[in-house]
Amino acid sequence: MSLSNTSRCSALGVFMLLCALPALSQQVDCTVTVNYEAVGTANKDLLRDFESEIRDYVNNYQWGTEQLDVKVKCNMDVFIQSVTGENKYLAQVFVGSQRPIFGSKKSTASVRLFDEAWEFTFLKERPISHNPYAYNDLTSVLDFYIYLILGYDYDSYERLGGTPWFQKASDVASMARTSSQKGWQLVTTGYSRTQMVTDILNPTANPVRASFYRYHFNGLDSLASDKQRAWEQMKGAIEQIGVAKKGIDARNLMVKVLFDTKYLEIAETFQEYPDPTFYIDLSKIDPSHQKTYDEYRLKKR
C-alpha cells in the first residue's frame, strides 16, 4: 500500500477495514447535471443522452492503478451556451469536489472552479470511451478535471500526495495544446486548464500545497477532537501560504482557486477563535475576500 493510501486511511477511520484489503483502482462518485436552456429543441434532442453518457464515463471507470476503492465525491455542472457547428457545442462547466472531515458528519470542499470555454463534439448514440493516448475535445476535458480532482483529494491527505494525479492532468493538457480548442493554451490573464495545472506543479507552489495538506489533515480533521490545536494548525497553514505567496507569481491560479474555494469556510471556522485580529491578517493574505473577513470580524464584537 502506498503512503497516500495509508494517509487517507488514517484520516478516514471508518474506512480502515477497506485499507486492509488489496489495493484497488481509485473511483469517483460524480454528480453530473447539464443545463440545455440556451439551445433549441432540435439540439436538446441531439443532446438527450449527453448527461447520462458523461456520468457513466466518469463514474464507471477505474482511474489509475493501486489506489483505494473509497470513492471521491465530486460534481460537474455543465451549461450549454451555444451550437457552434454540426454536433459541436460551446459550454461552461463548474467543477467541484469534497472530502469528509474526520470525526464529523460534515464535508469540506477541496476544489471549486469555473471553466468558461469548453468546446466539444457530441454525436448522439455514439458511445464515448477512454483513450489516454489521443486528444478528444470531449473526453480530454473530463479526464483533465477528474485527474485534477484526485490530485486535490490526495494533496489533502499527504504532503504533495496528489503529484502523480496532477502530472496525469498535465499530460492531458500537453497533448491538448496541439489543438486549437479554447481553454488549453497558456495565458497571462484569466483561466486556462493548462495554466492551472502548470501553476500547481510549479515548484514555487509546493509550500502552498504543503499548507493545503496541513490545513486539512492537521487542522480540519482535528476540529472534533481538539479545537484549539486545529485552529492553530489551520492558522499556521494560512500564514505559511501568506509567506509563500511572496515568492509566487501574483497571477498563480492555484492560489486564487484555493482561496475562492476555502474563504467562507475559513471565515466561519475562525468565528469562535479567541483572537479576532486574525481576520485582519486574513485580509492581508487574501485581499480578494476582505469584505467577508471584515463581516465575520465585526460579528465577534
Secondary-structure map:
Elements: H1 3-11, H2 16-19, E1 24-26, E2 28-35, H3 41-46, H4 50-59, E3 63-67, E4 72-85, E5 88-100, E6 107-121, H5 139-155, H6 163-176, H7 193-201, H8 206-219, H9 227-245, H10 253-269, H11 278-285, H12 290-299
Parallel strand pairs: 2-4
Antiparallel strand pairs: 1-3, 4-5, 5-6
Relevant terms:
46% helix, alpha+beta, 2 domains, single chain, four-stranded mixed β-sheet, two-stranded antiparallel sheet, elongated
What does this structure look like?
A hairpin with a 2-residue loop joins strand 4 and strand 5. The protein is an alpha+beta fold. The chain is elongated, with a radius of gyration of 20 Å. Helix 6 runs antiparallel to helix 7, helix 9 (227-245) runs parallel beside helix 11 and helix 11 (278-285) packs antiparallel against helix 12 (290-299). The protein has two domains: 3-165, no CATH class; 209-299, no CATH class. The protein has helices at residues 3-11, 16-19, 41-46, 50-59, 139-155, 163-176, 193-201, 206-219, 227-245, 253-269, 278-285, 290-299; strands spanning 24-26, 28-35, 63-67, 72-85, 88-100, 107-121. The termini are far apart. The longest helix is centred in the C-terminal third of the chain and has 19 residues, at 227-245. It has a four-stranded mixed β-sheet with strand order 2-4-5-6.
